[in-house]
Amino acid sequence: MGDVHHFTYGLVTPGVAYALSVMGSVLGLICTARLRTATTNGQRWWWLSLAAFALGGTGIWAMHFMAMLGFTVSGTLIRYDMLRTLISALTAVVVVGLGIYIAGFGRTSAPRILIGGLLTGVGVAGMHYTGMFAMNMDGVVHYDQGLVVASVVIAVVAATVALYFTVKLSRPLAIAGAAVLMGVAVCGMHYTGMAAMSVELTHPTLTVPGATASTLLVPIGILVLLVIGGLIYAIGAAPSQEDLAARAYLDKIQAAREEAAAATAAAEAGAQQRGTLRRPTAVPPRNR
Question: In the chain, how many domains are there?
């Protein structure tokens, strides 16, 4: 059996992974708060898509990939299959979007949150093991079934709690606190799944097919930064609930002023017309 190392670079990879999870959770919760106040279906789908990329793409998948960078096995190289890696990323975004749709569209209820959490949690676990299946090495991977089940349970519970947060929270402090807890849950699920893994080495080969972690780090890192930057820009550019309320209040005041001005103008016009009708006709003087 090969020696499995999850923290090859110390606390760097888990620290960055946790930070990505918290960042994605914060942005995702803000997007779902905007989704709840959206007034059109187009706006709702827009914020749903952004929330799926924030939570699924950054908070879950990017965290997973960063944590995997610290994973090594003594006696073999590790390479990544590009297609399976891409499938794992798309899976994370799609299942999170599906969960938010089930829990957040229409009337919110406990059964909808539970169903959405179950589907999302199983999907996130599937994403995790798809990402692990994307690893190529000179060895056969074995899993501890108990830890695998535990990781799936953690994923379902974490997803359910996350969906509850997405339909309930809107205040900044509450969102920040929830994001910290969600980061702990996502990282806990990942490392529980990784702890279930053991590797039986086979005969070494000259080459292991696939891309190296360092090769994927730059493009994925740039993509994650672009996604985070785009999310921050979209959130900052869109009016908040307070902005919309203030705009509606000002519009109401402006409409009242215009109505009052119109009423005043109508009253003045009526007064002038009545004055013209009541004015006596001048009588010319008589000639003596």
Answer: 2
